[in-house]
Amino acid sequence: MDDRDFRDYEGREPACVKHHVLRQYLLEVALKVGMSSPGVTFNYVDGFSGPWMSTGEVHADTSPHVALTQLRKARDELATRGRPGVMRGFFVEKNKSRFDRLQELLRGFKDIETEAYEGTFEDAIPRAARFVRQAKNPFSFVFIDPTGWQGYDLERIAPLLSATRGEVLINFMTDWVKRFIDSEGSRYGLERLAVESDAWKGLSGLQREDKIVETSACFSPGSGVTATPQAR
To answer: Are the beta carbons of 169 and 142 closer than 8 angstroms?
Structure first.
């Protein structure tokens, strides 16, 4: 990213890092899957879509726009390599005004099949699972980027994670987890994310922080899919 790109994210540095990961990693995964599995349908699922705090009318600095742009690049590159595939997207947003902006954004990608769901990610699971299963030779990339650590109970989202072969990327604010992880009121929610509740006991400083991040790696029951949190 050049200096101009960073200036576009002034005051939104976590979003800058997240979008950089999406630009690099999502494209890499889509190309790798497409080359190894000709005719694949690559399903991108965004459980907390936004768009959030966009600075432009086309929302180019938001996760949905970044993801769809990379999927378009992957589709075109695979076609030039003789490995044509299909790219699709399923987007979830519970806030009405953000959902309206999301639908406006998706209309700018008419060459990619998309579906939007107004509601919570957990409530959208049955519909999202149907969406990814409907495709021929499906592969699913599920992106989970909540505010905090709630809204993606692993038992609730397991039907989506096990619907097809795929991968999950979870991005959450470790600062929130570090602040509240020892609170009795927060313990249940964290344990529902498969966080081992006592692994960091007796540790302090960077050792405690590293252990919290390490033990926050999530494994969905029965799906064989691993989700690794991205610290921010």
So the answer is: yes
Q: Contact 207/147 with Cβ under 8 angstroms?
A: no
- Is residue 42 within 8 A of residue 86, CB to CB? The reply is yes
In three-state secondary structure terms, 98 is helix
Q: Classify burial at 180, counting beta carbons within 10 Å of its beta carbon; exposed 0-12, middle 13-18, buried 19 or more.
A: middle
Nearest C-alpha neighbor of 166 from the set 140, 138, 137 = 140
Mean pLDDT for the stretch of residues 137-145: 94
Q: What are phi and psi of 45, to 5 degrees?
A: -120, 120
Amino acid at 181: I
Burial 51-69 (b: 16+ CB within 10 A, else e): bbebeeeebbbbbbbbbbb
N- to C-terminal Cα separation, the chain: 18
Domains annotated for the chain, with CATH where assigned, are 3-172 (3.40.50), 173-215 (no CATH)
Residue 26 burial by Cβ neighbours in a 10 Å radius (0-12, 13-18, 19+): buried
pLDDT tens-digit profile of 30-72? Answer: 999 999 999 999 999 999 998 866 666 657 888 999 999 999 9
Rounded CA gap, 150 and 25, in Å? 24
Sign of the four-CA dihedral 146, 20, 52, 70: negative
> pLDDT digits over 72-116, tens only?
999 999 999 999 999 999 999 999 999 999 999 999 999 999 999
